[in-house]
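Researcher: Please predict.
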Amino acid sequence: MENLRLLREIALRKAADRIGYDNQAERRTAEKMVSTRFLVCIGPSPSSARCIRWAARAAEAFHAQWSALYVETPDSEYFTKEQQSVLRTNMDLAAKLGAEIVTISGTDVVISTAEYARLSGITNIVVGKSRRHSLLQKLFQEDFEDRLIGLLPSIEVHIVPDLPTRHAHSVRSRRRQWERLRITPADTLKALAILLVATLLSILLRKLNLGDQNIIMVYILSVLVISRATQGYLYGVVSSVLSVLLFNFLFVEPLYTFTALQPGYTVTFLIMLFVALITSALTIRIKTEARLAVQKERRTEV
């Protein structure tokens, strides 16, 4: 009888321990579900709908909150009507399935997504697998999901296979490249007028014997003004090259030729060109970020 009583006590103690362990496991699971938050990255691709549905099912299984994020970049201006319609459809689908729709502005989708995920306490991100259509992109450009994983090592990234959208991608890419290289009469006149003013001012500086370094600074300033006053990247690049050629042609001995007697001027030309190109690129980037900030402010007011 004594042995039976001991066995009964041991069995009860084991059962109590098991129940306690199960309760702790349930509490840990519940706490994890409460802290879990999903984020799905959406865009104008029809494949975004698959990511949205996957995130919705996962959020429902974990009883977790989830958001759908769209990052508006300067390239958004070049979306076709079809792509704009697909984007609105994807947002409507996410809202219908219970997601919080979030739209932010940025120049880099990956960096903007990573910053939002950190600030919002996101634990899981759902993205579509990007497809490279260019050999140069495959060789020199890192995939979206790889960059995101590198920036967010502590957040789980779930990759949903994307659908091929070669035609839409190529149309958008060609349109974006054309817009960046578009030539307009108004911008052409602006660029020529600014270069003319810079040249006249440089001639005045030469007559005052103020040195070639001041002439170089005038041309670099003209490139900055042209990049600020015109649209796209073309005018900034062309004006950078023209400023070097004008300086060489008008102010370097022998005059009115594209040759320089002093070997050191070759280095001067290269440095001047690099500085002008960098100045142009930074000016265009600042202008783009300012435009995105204005768009974000308008969207906030609405």
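Model: Residues 185-301 form one domain.
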